[in-house]
Design brief:
- There is one protein chain.
- This protein is α+β, with helices and mostly antiparallel strands and 209 residues long.
- The chain is built from seven helices and eight strands, in the order E-E-H-H-E-E-E-E-E-E-H-H-H-H-H.
- An eight-stranded antiparallel sheet has the order 1-2-8-7-6-5-4-3.
- The radius of gyration is 17 Å and the shape is globular.
Length: 209
Amino acid sequence: MSGVLDEIGLVHREVGTRRVGEEEAGTVLLRRSFDAALADVWAAVTTRERIARWFLPVTGDLREGGNYQLEGNAGGEILECVARERLRVSWLYGPDPGFSEVEVRLSPDGEARTVFELEHMAVVPEEFRSQYGPGAVGIGWDLALLGLGWHLTGGGLDQEAAAWQATPEAKAFVARSGEEWGHAFAASGADPQTVTATTVATVAFYTGD
């Protein structure tokens, strides 16, 4: 799993906000290009068997208007599905999930590369947002994109990949991801002290340190 930390630099990250009715939602956006054809990337993010190989096992009716459930994680409704272009789902977890949506957008980058964008928009309680910041979801999505990249090059969630999550390299990946989300948070106008505190708290949460 050489070059894992190099994967961090392949992702563009943005932090922002958006109005949802009377509330303000926080947004995180990740963008990177994969060395894979658009049809292959679309199949990887929409096919039950392939989702389980890079992310989590998923059950449900995987079509527009259907419901899905990721094992031990979020579930919700498939709100929009435009083949090889856009997938938008509600992303609900816990007894009082509030508003949360994830949208994946794909576009071709030549014949054999694909631009992948993922935007997660959620109304988050202020006490959680002020403690952990956008890295709370951003690091998780960085790990997911890492898994997707492995899958698209022939890898998957095998025993080696599972064991990797407990290694110093994995902790280094999380720490670097947290730093990059801190930079994106600062670029959005966040107070420097808040950026530092939330970055430290989020990295510690993920690494257990």
